[in-house]
Write a structure and sequence with these properties.
about 30% helix; five-stranded mixed beta sheet; about 35% strand; alpha+beta; six-stranded mixed beta sheet; Heat Shock Protein 90
């Protein structure tokens, strides 16, 4: 919570407020004869005699405190009342590190009244203090050279030290109580903890480690950096930030670690060695037993796995083949229904002679269909013959024209092909495309060889009026998709594609069978 401090000095008014410690630096307001603001990282939050600040981070900036704006601070100290603002032009300052006090004196910087962020245009020092060094800043009157104020900023070489530890399971009922107490006080030995007397520690297998560090009067609790490295893996590990309670959940059995800890901003670190004992199965005699069992398994398991995999593969192939036959059996009633509808149309129009011819050709196709109902593939020449029979009987009713191109490089008798796979696409082209065009309707069927790919295209010059056909939801399209999906499961190396393209000039259906022919 922000606090507003008002202090008066003659005509001087300076408003101070606290801020949250979310960043890497902290701001301290020091109110004395010459009010200053200090920006530092980690520091010990006591000022010895109100004049010495112990900083750990090294980087430090000092500025004059503004007199007429609010100052956001993490901490403040008030030692004395500030001097009159009108006296500032008669004051000079200097700063030096250790005893090198031969620096020149400088007049105080002129402060911009519009500045709202640190250093408020009153920067006095922006430097870095090494370990075991001290920075001294002095203020004096110009006319009599009398020292008004002196502040010392030291950087002791501090190292975090582990006070106590415990080995715990992954889930421990003490966790909540330990975490709350550890933040408040790390000097008392808590229940379940042991004092760490050496820099070496042995851990039982499967246990996690929890450490408590000796706590200093620091401005932040999360101010300790650590890294955990395996002895057998000496790669650099990034430093991580923790508080005075450190939990290590990455300790694995049968391993040795080096734990390094330091304060944020310091280079020096403390080192601890952690030896995690092995589980029984990680011991030498267990390893020998495992090797013997492994040799036995190495001989027997591959053969058993091969038999199992072969049986599963056969079952999978049989299942897919059964699905293919099921779809083919579903296609037959659909074809019969459409054929009977065509015969009904011819009879209704009193075209008995054509109806008889249609029926004779239809029965011929049905014999071939029933003969092939139990097989997954027939020769491409047989399928083309059945396809032409179907086209000719549809011509009896709709009087359209068709052309068929067969690539001479194709061995039609050697190429295996799913029976009646193309029939639903041609049926859609007839019924939903060119049925109303009469002799103007044209269907073009082409069989091409492109290296090892069999490409089949079916084109018509009609316009699909049925929205289901346009959207690809017709029964014929559904059966075709199901058959192709099952074929893909059966032949994973042979890529099979089925595409429809509708336009104002007609429809193009494309079948691609990659790696299907030699």
């Amino acid at each position: 919570m922000k606090k507003l401090l008002l202090y008066n000095c003659l005509l001087l008014c300076c408003a101070l407020s606290t801020r949250s410690q979310n960043g890497n630096t902290s701001v301290i307001t020091y109110i004395a004869e010459i009010p200053i603001i200090i920006e530092s990282g980690l520091y010990i939050d006591t000022l010895t005699n109100g004049k010495i600040l112990n900083t750990i981070s090294g980087k430090i900036r000092i500025a004059l405190a503004p007199r007429n704006i609010s100052i956001l601070s993490d901490q403040y100290f008030k030692i004395a009342n500030p001097i009159n603002k009108q006296q500032l032009p008669g004051i000079e300052y200097r700063y030096f590190i250790n005893d090198q006090s031969n620096n020149h004196w400088f007049s105080l910087p002129h402060q911009d009244t519009d500045a709202t962020k640190f250093p408020y245009s009153g920067l006095l020092a922006d430097t870095f203090i090494r370990a075991n060094e001290k920075l001294v800043i002095q203020f004096r009157y110009k006319w009599n050279q009398k020292i008004i104020q002196q502040n010392v900023f030291s950087r002791p070489e501090l190292l975090p030290s582990i006070f106590s530890y415990r080995q715990k399971e992954q889930f421990d009922s003490l966790d909540n109580r330990i975490q709350s107490k550890a933040v408040k006080d790390s000097k008392k030995l808590l229940a379940g903890f042991d004092t760490l007397k050496e820099s070496r520690l042995t851990v039982l297998p499967g246990k996690h480690l929890e450490f408590l560090f000796k706590k200093l009067s620091l401005n932040k609790d999360s101010c300790i950096q650590f890294r955990l490295r395996e002895i057998k893996n000496q790669e650099n590990t990034a430093w991580k930030l923790t508080g005075h309670l450190l939990t290590l959940n990455t300790i694995t059995a049968n391993n040795t670690y080096i734990l390094e800890v330091k304060y944020l901003g310091m280079d020096a670190f403390n080192t601890y060695r952690i030896n995690a004992l092995p589980f029984w199965y990680q011991t030498s005699w267990a390893m020998i037993l495992f090797i013997i069992l492994g040799v036995v398994a190495l001989i027997g398991l591959p053969y058993s796995f091969y038999i199992y995999k072969l049986r599963k593969e056969k079952q999978k192939i049989a299942q897919v083949q059964e699905q293919l036959k099921t779809v083919q059996s579903q296609l037959n009633p659909h074809f019969v229904y459409n054929a009977l509808s065509s015969i009904e149309g011819l009879v209704t129009n009193k075209e008995n002679e054509r109806a008889n011819e249609y029926l004779a050709s239809f029965s011929d196709i049905m014999r071939d269909t029933l003969k092939n109902s139990g097989v997954l593939f027939i020769s491409l020449s047989q399928d083309i013959e059945m396809l032409e029979k179907y086209i000719r009987i549809e011509q009896l009713r709709f009087e359209f024209k068709y052309t068929m191109y067969l690539d001479p490089r194709l061995d039609l008798d050697a190429i295996e092909f799913p029976p009646m796979l193309l029939q639903p696409s041609i049926e859609n082209a007839v019924k939903h495309g060119i049925s109303g065009l009469g002799s103007e309707g044209v269907i073009s069927i082409c069989f091409h060889k492109k290296e090892t790919t069999l490409e089949i295209t079916i084109k018509d010059n009609g316009v699909k009026r049925d929205s289901k056909i346009k959207d690809g939801h017709g029964y014929g399209i559904k059966f075709t998709n199901e058959r192709i999906n099952n074929l893909r499961k059966l032949y994973k190396k042979e890529k099979i594609e089925y595409q429809l393209f509708h336009s104002e000039n007609g429809t193009i259906v494309t079948f691609l069978f990659e790696n299907w022919i030699q």
